[in-house]
Amino acid sequence: MSIAPESHLPLSVPVHQILLSLADQDCHGYAVIQEIRERTGGNVTLTASTLYGALARMLTDGMITEVKDPTPKPEDWDDRRRYYRVSQYGRSVARVEAQRLQRVLDQARERGLGPDSTPQVRKGTT
Amino acid sequence: MHGTRWTTRFYRRLVRLLLPSRFRREHEDDLVRVFGDLLADSRAGNGLRGRAGAWLREMVSLVQLSWQLRRGGWSPAEAGRRGSAAASWMDVKLGFRMLVKHPGLTLAAVFSLAIGIPIGLVPGHFANAIQAPLPVVEGERIQVLRNRDLETGGEVDIPLRDFVTWREDLTSFEVLAATTRRASYNIVSEDGRAAPVKGAELMASAFTVLRATLKFGRVLVPGDEVPGAPDVVVIGHDFWHSRLKGDPGVIGRTLRIGGVPHAVVGVMPEGFHFPYQSGLWLPLRVDALAEAEDQRRAFMVFGRLSDGISIEESQAELATAGQRLTSDFPATYAQLRPEVVPFAMGFFGLPAGGFQTVFVFRILQLAALLVLVIACANVGMLTLTRTATRSGELAVRTALGASRMRVVSQLFIETLIFAVLAAGAGLLLGEIASRRFDMLLEMLPYWVDFGVTGKTVLSAMSLAVLSACLVGVVPALKVTGNRVQQNMPSARAGRSGVRFGGMSSALIVADVALAVATVAFGVGMSDTMTKVDEQMPVDANEYLLASLGVPGVGAMADMTPLERTEFTVRVGEMQRSLLQRLEAEPGVRGVAVASVLPGMDHQRRTVEVDGDARPSEVTVGPFVRPGQYPSAWHARVDVAFFAAMHHPILEGRGFDLNDLEEPRSVVIVNTGFVERVLGGRNAIGQRVRYVTSADDEPGPWYEIVGVVGPLGMSSGEPHREAGLYHPLAPGDVHPVTFALHVGNDPQSFVPRLPALASEVDPIAVLSDPIPLDEVFSFNRLAYVWVKRGTWTLVAVLLALSISGVYSLMSFTVGERTREIGVRAALGAQRPRIVLTIARRSLMQLGIGLALGLPMAWGLLSAMKAGTGRLPTHSPLALALGVGVGVMVVIGLLACVAPTRRALRIMPTEALHG
Question: Which of B302, B318, B680, B752 is least enclosed by beta carbons within 10 angstroms?
Answer without folding.
Answer: B680
